[in-house]
Amino acid sequence: MGRVKREREHVEVSIEGAEVKSKYFEKKPKLMHQQVNPDVDYIKNLDSKAYFQYIKELTDDSPERWSRPLDSSIFVSRPGCEPLPSNFKTIYCKIRLMRSKLMTPVDTVGCASLPITVSGHCGIEQVDIEPKNYRLQLLTALMLSSQTKDEVTAQAMENIMQYSMEEFKITQGITLETLLRIDEKKLDELIKSVGFHTRKAKYVKQMAQILVNTFDSDIPTDLPGILSLPGVGPKMGILALQKAWGKMDGIGVDLHVDRLCKMWGWVDAKKCKTPEHTRKQLESWLPRELWYEINPLLVGFGQVICMSRGKRCDLCLANDVCNAVDPKIMNKKAKTEGRATRGDFSQWLEYWDLNKKDVE
């Protein structure tokens, strides 16, 4: 007799404080957030090793981060702030735990990690990346990323890196010198896979010249400065300041964050017509300690589990509290198997299946 698959049921967990508890999940020390006002002059003088360590401490979004529960004080309502949505703490903590077992595109080829990933492909170790060049590459990746999947942006960045190293013999790849020297038409050709590539090639060229003329050949250190650059909107500017300088001047809201916050009722969908509207409403109540991590948290979750099309409610730890669960997906036994269309959720499946046995 062939093996019969049992339907995967919901994994029972409880939320205590801000910690997801289950006999299947290893207990980790709590993650304590500290409010930091970065000293930009200090950061500019750091060598590569010290710089990347400093930024990692402020903006680490590795899987280890998500497995560490948040301190419960983060979820206490603050004076002068809107109250937290009633379902926020439960859903947020469950998504964090799931993310600790998911490998998503944003984790390796998202704009924040892209300079390091692409440099590695080009034979440049992280310790050999000059911080100023990392910041420039980060900003360039963000400018290319609009209306474009992370994987496509990554290929475009690698094209520019390879061309810069081969044509100009500059070992760091993308630098201000290479962006100023590269012909705009050639740049357009190298990034033709990204959305609105011709316009973006023009913006990148203009950006490089402005950095030389106005910002001492480095990226701006505040939001007004970075938003003065052509083709840079609030989401790009906020994310650039976070990963370049460790500054938390706002919440980076892309289409995934916008969609999920509306779906769960964390923002008013009728009032939030754009991601920028969503950002402003989120900032009215979301604890500042979460302003950075909510972006990589929800982007990765939205890429692999809760996509706009083909979402996997059957694999979601929050499927018992989510108001948008699709009953058709939950009722399909076969739906619980298969590979992720993007990223990798195999480690999450292993955790989920710890208490599920095949029946002979």
TrEMBL record:
It is found in: Nucleus; Mitochondrion. Transmembrane segments: none annotated. Its main location: nucleus. One of its GO terms (cellular component) is nucleus. Its cofactor is [4Fe-4S] cluster. GO terms for molecular function: 4 iron, 4 sulfur cluster binding; class I DNA-(apurinic or apyrimidinic site) endonuclease activity; DNA binding; metal ion binding; oxidized pyrimidine nucleobase lesion DNA N-glycosylase activity. This is Endonuclease III homolog. It comes from Zygosaccharomyces rouxii.
